[in-house]
Amino acid sequence: MVCLGVVIVSFISWRCKGINGQFPGPTIRAEVGDTLHIAVTNKLFTEGISIHWHGIRQFGTPWADGTASISQCAIIPGETFHYRFKLDKAGTFLYHGHNGMQRTGGLYGSLIVDLPKGQKEPFHYDDEINILLSDWWHKSVQDLEAGLSLDAESFRWVYEPQSLLINGRGQFGCSLGANFINHSLPVCHFKGDEECAPYIVRVLPNKTYRMRIASVASLVSLNFAISNHKMVVVEADGNYVQPFTVDKIDIYSGESYSVLITTNQNPNQNYWISSSHQDNNVSTTQALTLLNYKRISPSILPSFPPPPTFPWYDFEGRKAFTKKILALKGTPQPPKYSQRRIVFLNTQDLINGYIKFVLNGISLSLPPTPYLGSIKFKLKNAFDWRAPPENYPQDYDIDNEETTKNLNSTLGNMVYMFPLNQVVDVVLQNALGIGPNSSAFHPWHLHGHDFWVVGFGEGKFKDGDEKSFNLKNPPLKNTIVVFPYGWTAIRFRADNPGVWAFHCHMEPHLHMGMGVVFAEGVQYVKGIPDQALACGLTGEMFVNKNTHS
Ligand code: C2O
Ligand code: CU
């Protein structure tokens, strides 16, 4: 079956990008085996766009991955680009803009892939609920980007968002939970039909619901909870996990979960649903909405306080949650050995007076010609073809920011090239950035693959630490966090011909260079549409070909 979706990106209101006049964009829903055909028309006036289908591996269609400068040329204003790709796996996914910081500007939506008819999930539920979490700034994306691009003296961090959103709805200047939270905000009152009225989750008593929860947050890590209702986690990033029960889930940008909830509480009251900020600064008000059993008015506020919020430095609580995620029996296991190990030192450095994130001393600065075309056609001048560093100086002290000086950091656009099917271990090594206590949480996302999360550790990863890797039931994911002052190890097989971004999913971090580019088997890639190559050196190549023939 071919599903046709038409996605038109335009401004729906001041500073807010929307799709088909909706914010968030429409939920795209299809079945395994379907081919999605999505025509994206750029109705913005000045900016190029591309849309990434986050979690979809794009086997055979790497040109449809939607990463500007990597898999395609940005779609210019007025143009339509046709994404066509096959859905090979069920799960909860996302889509979002992938050019500059357009995700922060609101260019996103949910993508849900169902099992083919007749196949059953390994858990039971009566109905489902879809929740998309995000964060919201009052400043325009242009303004936020501009602040990040200033030299270190004038540099303006984005700081914290003004609101957190649940399905695109958030409050500012009031809180539904104001009566219980000890601050000066008034209680929000809604009739229910306002543009920003909370998205009420309506349920029936004594049923089991599959709640799909995904985060496209620009920056913050969130925790999500429903008062009086336990959550049984069954899916993470489109992969089944060994079910475990929790009161709240920690969700990092780019992650998705399915949890089962049972509506077995008193149906004559409403319950809080909350999404709370969990970052350096905790003053953004938690986003609240209600779980309503359809027995009473959805506007009656609960008589008890909303779920607690947790401080960002609750490292132990956050690690405990992430380490509970293990693969469900029957999930493919990782290869026993890896053939290559790349260690990425995650830190910050000053480059020519600008604050940048660097990986082994290199801060990603994307070239104008998308890599997929320049590697396929071996364009020597499109980017720096030298092999980038696979480790960092062994005497580097991850707890001492002075030592970044030894990295001699530079901007770069080199590519990690893998022979097709190579088994690769990547160790994300966290360290101090610039400033005290500056080792941060970073959710790393890999395009084109799921990877096994084989290990976590404190301090510096050492030779031999691979002996402690979990090769028995490591979860398959596409996004995983690296904790402050520690390391996270993943294993994957480079079995998907194409060029793939691997980056921190906090958009301002990526904007400051926190990403790398992987390529494998590009010689086998076929059928790249001309439009994906119509810029930079590949664009010139076409023009020359046409004028010479
Ligand atoms: Cu959801 Cu490269 O990102
Ligand atoms: Cu980051």
TrEMBL record:
Molecular function via GO: copper ion binding; L-ascorbate oxidase activity
Major subcellular location class: secreted
Catalytic activity of the protein: 4 L-ascorbate + O2 = 4 monodehydro-L-ascorbate radical + 2 H2O
GO cellular component: extracellular region; plasmodesma
Subcellular location: Secreted
Alphabetical UniProt keywords: Copper, Disulfide bond, Glycoprotein, Metal-binding, Oxidoreductase, Repeat, Secreted, Signal
Residues of the signal peptide: 1-18
Co-factor requirement: Cu cation
Source organism superkingdom: Eukaryota
PROSITE patterns per the UniProt record, alphabetical: MULTICOPPER_OXIDASE1, MULTICOPPER_OXIDASE2
Main EC class the enzyme belongs to: oxidoreductase
Enzyme Commission identifier(s): 1.10.3.3
Start and end residues of each Plastocyanin-like domain: 17-115, 129-294, 385-521
Subunit structure: Dimer.
Family in the record: Belongs to the multicopper oxidase family.
NCBIfam families, per the entry: ascorbase
PANTHER family: FI03373P-RELATED (PTHR11709:SF394), MULTI-COPPER OXIDASE (PTHR11709)
Name by which UniProt lists this protein: L-ascorbate oxidase
